[in-house]
Amino acid sequence: MNSPVKLVIFDWDGTLFDSVGQIVSSLKFAAQTFEQPLTDADAKSIIGLGLPEVAQRLFPTVPELHHDILQSYSEHYVANSKGDMWFTGVAEMLNELRAAGTQLAVATGKSRKGLDRVLAQTNSRDLFVTTRAASETKSKPDPLMLAEILAETGIAAEQAIMVGDTSYDLEMARNISMPRIGVSYGVHSVETLKSFQPLSIAHDVAELQQLLLQYVSLSEAV
């Protein structure tokens, strides 16, 4: 990168938050409740999209059931999400980036209600200068939520980095010419992530922290 890094934008599920298993379990519960077939692989593949897009992709033949399926999914997720939490090292990484003067933001496929709940759960709202949820803007990979974050912070795309575990995250960033880093410990494979030309791919949070601090340090030297 040739521009100073002023802002790091994180995806939530599968990047900061260890919730992929619970998402898959809740989607399968909702599908079974309404007698719809759904494999683990298919449920996992849509993590990162907004909920309406999830329903359209997974249950295209029963649009009349989408509302009820999504409600069942959300209720099951909330009732059974006691085990989901940040990946080990995430809190330390976020605090160190903040201490280095870097602004942090979230761009997620979660609903605003769901994002607010997990921000409160992790007591992390004050770590982020702004957040965007799919329910209040367009779903990934449309870059609108990134454009809104950039407009709010006054930071140019080339001065930010998007971090995510799915093709939707990296494609969204590519669509707005934003540098990006993939993480391999979430949903999509390294091969899939590489196809979106990330700066790098981190295989755990410790490696991600090291990469991000390197870019922040480079920006301080500019």
UniProtKB/TrEMBL annotation:
Q: Which GO terms describe its molecular function?
A: phosphoglycolate phosphatase activity
Q: Which Pfam families does the record cross-reference, listed alphabetically?
A: HAD_2
Q: One GO BP annotation here?
A: DNA repair
GO CC, one annotated term: cytosol
Listed InterPro entries: HAD-like_hydrolase_sf, HAD-like_sf, HAD-SF_hydro_IA, HAD_2, HAD_sf, PGP-like_dom2
The record, for SUPFAM superfamilies, names: HAD-like
Domain of life from the UniProt record: Bacteria
Q: Which UniProt keywords apply?
A: Hydrolase
Query: NCBIfam families under this entry?
Result: HAD-SF-IA-v1
Protein's name in the database: HAD family hydrolase
Q: Which organism is it from?
A: Acinetobacter gandensis
